[in-house]
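Example complex used in Figure S2.
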Amino acid sequence: MERSRIALPIGITLDRFIKSKQDEYPQAAGEFSQLLRDIALASKVVNREINKAGLVDIMGYIGQQNKAGDEQQKLDVLAHIRFSRAFSKGGEAAGIISEETKSFTDFKNKGKYVVAIDPLDGSSNIDVNVSIGTIFSIYKRKTRPGTKLTQKDFLQKGSEQVAAGYILYGSSTMLVFTTGKGVFGFTYETTLGEYVLSHPQMRCPANGKIYSINEAGLPQCPNPGIGRYLDKCKKDGFTARYIGSLVADIHRNLIKGGIFIYPATDRYRDGKLRLLFECNALAMIVEQAGGMARNGSKRILDIAPKDLHQTTPFFVGSKRLVKELLSELQRK
Ligand code: AHG
Ligand code: MN
Ligand code: MN
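Predicted assembly (332 residues):
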């Protein structure tokens, strides 16, 4: 029996998992594994800093704004630094684009991959001890390794991601990722300092009873289909759940079944969530788990980005629910 076909038992460490899966990527085995290890390592450091958030003076605003005009918090910046450093030291990523920086960083090495990252997602929840996350996308660079990186290397469709995932710093810390062959969830075992496989081949239920939207924005939604869909959910006995940390909202719906909705509003005419740093990775995860991710008319993963910080409406989750919402949106 091939090594990669052996059933992977719950409890296997991330490192062993990566080794046993290397056979599936003969053309990229070592480099790719190193990237995943870099992410795991940086996430452990960030996890430690998050857990100290109430104890040391790393909470609160740093007094700057990022490109989208959000207040940056110290942990946003710290997480950005930790992940950037892990990738630049690991040597497999040629560069990185982060939600926290205006443009990309070229590590000036021979790496074949580039990374897009939201180093800390849900940062308004840090001060109040609520779950937050990290979201990442990995692409093969378009230009030749060893040459200067260009925007072209980062402005790739989500369908070109070679891997994507998130870390959820929740009641436990989890690393969930896909390389295009299903979704695997690892839980951080703090006493061992290791991620262990806890959720092999995660599947998003085709149906569900949870809707997640910041409903306060509903009056500012130009499309009345959103309101109609929510009325229908209410009649059908749904429950509303909205954390305000995208990773946590998606993770819950992925496991329990549900729909996450961030529409275009008068305030956010193209939606609020970022295609490159948030939506692409989560869309790949959800699709790999059997769910669906759309912007209203298009598959998220088919959008050709024009701007590094481009935003998009985001409708994602259980297939049946997303389809129902889309038909409401199209109804006049
Ligand atoms: P970030 O903290 O990376 O800026 O992301 C915040 C995002 C996302 O996590 C969440 O789903 C959304 O903002 C919540 O927005 P509203 O406050 O408008 O509901
Ligand atoms: Mn975010
Ligand atoms: Mn962020």
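The pocket of manganese (II) ion (ligand 3) is lined by residues 76, 99, 118, 120-121, 123 (CB under 6 Å). The CA atoms of residues 295 and 314 lie 5 Å apart.
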